[in-house]
Design brief:
Blueprint (H helix, E strand, L loop, with lengths): L1 E2 L2 E2 L11 H8 L4 H21 L7 H30 L2
Antiparallel strand pairs: 1-2
Length: 90
């Protein structure tokens, strides 16, 4: 995943790879930019679900793992955004 000038790699083999550091990096961007990146992440996962079943060495297990990882990452990031917004409004 490309974020600004940094490339953040997420892996199906290790879906919890650096979720905390990803969240920290995401917080350096505006809320709008963070939301756009999360939408892109979900769209990537949807595309994998369409394409992976047709690829011999991927299939449904790959699509499931990739999508689960994306959903977890997006959920964690959205929670972080909500926390950030609540702290700003205090």
């Amino acid at each position: 995943m490309l974020i600004g000038q940094a490339v953040i790699s997420t892996s199906v083999d290790n879906p919890t790879t650096n979720l905390h550091s990803l969240s920290h990096i995401m917080n350096t961007f505006s809320i709008d930019d963070q939301l756009v990146m999360l939408i892109d992440r979900l769209n990537d996962a949807v595309n994998v679900c369409y394409e992976a079943p047709e690829i011999e060495d991927q299939g449904y297990p790959y699509a499931t793992g990739y999508s689960r990882s994306a959903m977890k990452e997006v959920s964690d990031s959205l929670s972080s955004i909500v926390k950030q917004l609540r702290e700003e409004n205090v």
